[in-house]
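Suppose a colleague, Dr. K., hands you the sequence of a protein chain of 271 amino acids and asks what its three-dimensional shape might be. Before reaching for any lab equipment, you can write down a predicted structure in token form. Begin with the sequence itself:
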Amino acid sequence: MPRKQQIAENLPYRLQRILAQSGLASRRKAEDLIREGRVTVDGKVFTELGLKIVPSEHRIEVDGKSIASPESKAYYLFNKPPGVLSTLKDPKGRPTIKDFLFQARIKERVFPVGRLDWNAEGLMLLTNDGELAQQLQHPRFQVPKTYRVKIQGIPSETSLRQLEKGIKLPGGKMHRADSETVKTGEDRSWLLITIREGEKHQIKNMLAAIGHPVITIKRIALGPLSIGRLAPGRLRPLTPNEIQILINGFLQGKRQTIKEKTSNPVFPQKS
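The predicted structure, expressed as tokens, is then:
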């Protein structure tokens, strides 16, 4: 499937871009790997960032291991169960996403885009597309993430409007969230919460600030992707249509919006 900004193996590209496209690291981290002398091309170490090579004509290794081909992109949706770390390894031996990748016999070296808390559950995107992962997580792209949250008590309309107006969290930054009440019980409520940032424990801290601690939290959507009927602990590849919408629809639209904002700054009129 054609995609914009995709690396063609018969054209020269900067080494750090090739590393990022392989899914090994972000562009900035790839630059650090090069500077640290951990990257070799045909067995020779290069520490300068200006090197351009044709990927298909050279052997590129990081720490002695060959990188994935820039063309072999993989995208999976994963429904993380609670009690699983959203990482690929844990020194304490606790369950991680890697256990489920092994069970599903996924051969590509994919990594999670963003994280979910240990006791949280729901949708995660696993990929080896470093550039896409960086864009989905960058604050300026304002990618919406929607969660189904069970909380203590029944919040008032005033409290919910406070979420939308913004709440200053311990770090001192103002954060906002869209909310919708799904149902209420005697002393419990279920909300849909959408945020466009990714501060650690953001939703838990915001709801605690209005007096309604979180009981359970589940991510059900990330940008245009939704969890649907995917069972906990299961994963599936994105469909070609989902990939098309995510890369050439949703993110391309975000890039265009950012470009328009930066190329057409609004200056206050002089009085």
